[in-house]
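Notes, Module 5: Reading structure tokens.

Key idea: the token line is not a picture. It is a compressed description, and you learn to read it the same way you learned to read a sequence, by spotting repeated patterns. We will look at two proteins. The first is printed below with its tokens.
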Amino acid sequence: MASLLTQKSLVIGKLTKYVNDCAKRLSSHFIYYPDNEKPVSGETTKMNMMQAINNAMDITLRDDPTAVLFGEDVGFGGVFRCALGLQDKYGKDRVFNTPLCEQGIAGFGIGLATAGATAIAEIQFADYIFPAFDQLVNEAAKARYRSGGQFECGALTVRAPCGAVGHGGLYHSQSPEAYFAHTPGLRVVVPRGPIAAKGLLLACIRERDPCIFLEPKILYRSAAEEVPVEDYTLPLGKAQLLREGTSATLVGWGTQVHVLLEVAQMAEDQLGLTVDVIDLQSILPWDEDTVCNSVKKTGRCLIAHEAPLTCGFGAELAATVQEECFLHLEAPVSRVAGWDAPFPHVFEPFYLPDRWRCFAQLNKLLHY
């Protein structure tokens, strides 16, 4: 009897370890590829993406006396701690909590920016930006046009954590970039890591168009790099070619960039082929030249994003590539994306366009 109980305990222990190991892997569906190149020379310090975003806002509040930071719970740092310590440093007049009212947060930010202040608004999760959709699309995006250039709210930057995190479920995992990409007058930006996040956020804050800055929340602490300490910006509307090759062009943004970098390595190791990997960075406007020039060189294009396939931003990329690169294509443009379903909880690993789905699709492209 004792022997049987011991055997059962060992079996249960192995099963528990197997489940725990799987959970650890499934909570992070990618390998992080840190940036090694620095946009500016000088002193660096190791930061994760949360710290890099905090640093960008710290620099803004320090150098711009009109700058204010506000949102739900930002007074104590916010849910993801991106504003940690900023209220203590700059006071409750410049870093403060708002009511749980996304429409009000956006409207308040538009008013501040129109009056000449630099407004940094945080929406606690990108999934809850939709109550503010009217304010952002009908007011912020159109202020300059409807006034004939007499006033604008370009000093408004709206930050929002987005994307899969491993356990977010349908209300805390969505990627809403395509909704805003349909709106002239806005800029939509998604960083892939700390160096990019700091430079792009500072560029958004100083841009004269209102910006939606979507931060892949799983990267807040899983991504760490040697980030330049000094002030710097990265150009908006410009993609980055992260890896060069000849057999295909892989295009993504945010977390998906790291999935595609892993796919590129798999292609080299298993197939002996090299591919271009492009981080779009800016969704609106997006860098058509970099993408199309790459596709004209490689003849094949794979686009991957976490948002659902239908009307995802990959559809716009695919249409443009087909139109501009048709005579250079060796295969139809391919998209790998989330499914046309609400974002699941326990089935998240089957929903995400992971390296296996992307690699399988790349194989189809190569053998078309």
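Here is the second protein, with the sequence above and the tokens below, as before.
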Amino acid sequence: MALNNFLDFFQIQKEKTFRPKKKFAHGTIRYSLHKQACASLNSGINLRNAVKLPSGEDLNDWVAVHVVDFFNRINLIYGTISEYCTDQTCPTMSGGPRFEYLWADGAKYKRPTPLPAREYISNLMDWIEIQINNQALFPCTSDLPFPKNFLTHCSKILARLHRVFVHVYIHHFQNIVTIAAEAHVNTCYKHFYYFVTEFDLVSTKELEPLSEMASKICKDSPE
């Protein structure tokens, strides 16, 4: 499967999504920003420049759009390899021997708890869906204000989404190679990496498991 277009890959793989895709309502500011971001990805523009806040736009709107887009795309990436991620092959949510992630959501899991990777990711996607469907956190219209701690909420979501990248790259990269999707996954990671570093949304500690890879593939310089 040789695809020239980054977004074509995700369109073709949509039947494998791990969760239903979240969409923006037509006519809203966020829908327009989403289309603008997608157009930039499709045009082959420098990704480091593509993540910058468009002139005159609100940072919260721009971040909200990207949180939902990354949620959708990482769902699709994990969906392409989820059949290989079983309780037997991945009994822990890890990124190699140095990194293991424990799940806590303050509800069912009040304390950090070790889970198989697939169960961890399922809980993570459920948790994110609750966040982005909560009008108090992610208002769907411009007449509703964002909460003052909106960016803090988004940082937590993005940090946890990054753990899915960590698990996929370290434990399932050969599965990605098998379907000839490594270039597209790399592009998605670069987009994610440039975005979270542009706005300082994910700590260097969370990014550490893939820091060596990022130093090799994220070499675009601002134009």
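Summary for the second protein:
- The mean pLDDT is 83.
- Residues 163 and 181 are 19 Å apart (CA to CA).
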